[in-house]
Amino acid sequence: MSITVHLFYTGVNGNARKFAEEMISSGTVQKIREEKGNIGYSYFVSMEDPETVLLVDQWENQEALDIHHASEMMQTIASLRNKYDLHMKIERFSSEESPVKDDSFIRK
Questions:
Q1: Closest to 43 (Cα-Cα) out of 95, 96, 6, 91
Q2: Which CATH number does the domain housing residue 79 bear?
Q3: Segments forming the whole domain that contains residue 43
Q4: CA–CA gap between residue 31 and residue 14 (Å, rounded)
Q5: Of 44, 54, 63, 108, which is most buried with the most CB atoms under 10 A?
C-alpha cells in the first residue's frame, strides 16, 4: 500500500518558496527521488496563499518512508526548514482502489 504525504510549508517573505527552490537547486530533491521506494516528490505553489508551498511526497510503503526518515537527508531538510523558519501542516493518505462510482467524476 503506497503512502502519500502532503506537507504544507508556511513562512514569511517568500521563505517557503525559497526553501523549495534551494531543495531543488542543491540537488536534495533529486537525491530523494532516487531513494529506494520513492514514487514522487514535488512542490506546488498555493494560488490562495503565496506564503505556503505544498510538497507531495509519495512512497511505496511505510518501510521506505521510515528508511527515508532515518537517513541523513532528513538532517539536511530540517536544517533548511530552520534556515527559512518554516512551519508545517501534514496530511497523510494511504492508497486504495477508487470506488467505481468515482469514475464518473474523473475526466480522462
A1: 6
A2: 3.30.70.100
A3: 3-105
A4: 24
A5: 54
For the segment 52-85, what is each residue's pLDDT rounded down to a tens digit? 999 999 999 999 999 999 999 999 999 999 999 9
User: Identity (one letter) of the amino acid at 38?
Assistant: N
Q: Domain tally for the chain?
A: 1
Q: What is the pLDDT of residues 31-54, one digit of tens each?
A: 999 999 999 999 999 999 999 999
Distance CA 34, CA 93 (A): 22
pTM of the model as a whole: 0.86
Q: What is the DSSP string of the chain?
A: --EEEEEEEE-STTHHHHHHHHHHHTTHHHHHHTSTTEEEEEEEE-SS-TTEEEEEEEESSHHHHHHHHTSTHHHHHHHHHHHTT-EEEEEEEE--PPPGGGGGG---
